[in-house]
TrEMBL record:
Pfam families: URO-D. It comes from the Bacteria. InterPro entries: Methanogen_methyltrans, UROD/MetE-like_sf, Uroporphyrinogen_deCOase. This is Uroporphyrinogen decarboxylase (URO-D) domain-containing protein. GO terms for biological process: porphyrin-containing compound biosynthetic process. GO terms for molecular function: uroporphyrinogen decarboxylase activity. Residues 182-382 form the Uroporphyrinogen decarboxylase (URO-D) domain.
Length: 392
């Protein structure tokens, strides 16, 4: 019998494992809930760090873990700022204010071009959110961000958190699509990001060219770090066709995707793209025009537009498919029986011949019943075998 890590890695590489891997997306809210602590303990004070809470959740539910260090902080040395500016030593806390159900933290970093400010709201029972983002003036504040990211980096040569996971999880490093990176820094969030792309396309092309060059160099180092990552994740939640147009996606994200997936292919490490919501057109685009290996979460209607059976038929020669079980109608509001029925439909639609990971269509809500998650996992174990009696 394969270990969870072996099962996930085999699937990422389009192989046929002993059974269908099952890896529900519970990377944030559910691990925090299971600690029994205020969420600010995990997100703000790292007691425990979210990565540790996630591994404990993997142990509790017994699924095939997907440990994804999106910030890659454990592979980098100190510099002015981390890859997305979330470097803890760069930003000085200038205010921390506790309210009944939230803690507001305001941070500041100085540059020769002026200061940048960032404010987050850490809630008692939900993930944090920005209440003030650093890029307020598009041109002036980006110049400050650029200064922070331009310093020569001193990189470490190994991942220190690898020991946390053993054989419980696959281990991934990662990056953001350019649109998502800019949205995370821009005051005004998604709507202002779209205005920037429409109002100042030449400037935004310069921004994203700089970001692409920076990320390619950073990922080269991550791919050389030891042990070699099992996968490189590319985060693209704000790049869904539920949010932006195909024109914006192609103009600002596609070149980045081509370069990152080409780099991963050259290094022999699978690339993995997350775009929730309406992603059918994106699946087709990346299939035809990039070297992407794994696509998730393939949301079905009403939140998404992916037909899993059709996706398997059209893209099975190149793409590993991951996801599709509805998080709200089924995982959150459904019964264990309904979870089993939908999971079985997904296995029947996409598991044949390998190249499929049973997972949820994006993040499971905080209060998703534990019994529904257990039902998803048990369905894969019972009906997802590639070997022996009752095999697919």
């Amino acid at each position: 019998m394969m270990t969870p890590k072996q099962r996930m890695v085999t699937a990422f590489r389009h192989g046929v494992p002993d059974r269908v891997p099952v890896s529900p997306d519970i990377s944030n809210m559910i691990p925090c809930r299971l600690t029994g602590k205020p969420f600010w303990d995990i997100y703000l004070y790292r007691d425990p760090p979210l990565q540790v809470a996630y591994v404990e959740a993997v142990k509790y539910f017994g699924f095939d873990g997907f440990y994804f260090t999106i910030l890659g902080g454990h592979a980098v040395g100190k510099a002015r700022a981390g890859p997305w500016l979330y470097w803890p030593d760069s930003w000085k806390t200038v205010e921390e204010r506790k309210e009944e159900r939230a803690i507001i933290v305001r941070k500041m970093v100085e540059t020769p071009l002026g200061a940048l400010y960032w404010e987050k709201l850490y809630r008692i029972d939900d993930p944090p959110c920005n209440t003030h983002s650093p890029i307020v003036d598009r041109e002036q504040d980006f110049a400050k961000v650029k200064w922070l990211l331009e310093e020569e980096w001193q990189w470490e040569k190994k991942y220190h958190d690898y020991r946390l996971i053993g054989d419980l999880c696959s281990f991934g490093t990662g990056t953001y699509l350019p649109i998502d990176w800019w949205m995370s820094l821009r005051e005004g969030g998604i709507s202002q990001m779209i205005f920037d792309c429409m109002d100042a396309p030449q400037f935004m092309e310069q921004v994203f060219r700089f970001y692409t060059e920076h990320e390619i160099e950073r990922l080269k180092v991550h791919l050389r770090a030891k042990p070699t990552p099992d996968v490189v994740g590319i985060q693209g939640s704000a790049s869904s066709f539920s949010v932006i147009s195909p024109i914006i996606f192609r103009q600002y994200n596609l070149l980045f995707l081509k370069e990152v997936t080409r780099l991963c292919q050259k290094a022999g490490v699978p690339s993995h793209l997350h775009v929730c919501g309406r992603s059918k057109g994106i699946v087709e685009m990346v299939y035809q025009e990039t070297d992407l290996n794994v696509m998730e979460p393939l949301e079905r209607p009403p939140g998404g537009d992916v037909d899993l059976k059709e996706a398997k038929r059209r893209f099975k020669d190149k793409l590993v498919l991951k996801g599709n079980v509805n998080t709200f109608q089924t995982m959150f509001r459904g019964t264990p029986k309904e979870v089993e029925e939908e999971a079985l439909r997904c296995i029947e639609a996409a598991a044949s011949g390998g190249g499929f990971i049973l997972a949820t269509g994006d993040q499971c809500p905080r209060d998703t019943p534990d019994e529904n998650i257990f039902a998803l996992i048990e369905t894969a174990r019972k009906f997802g075998k590639y070997e022996g009696k009752n095999k697919i």
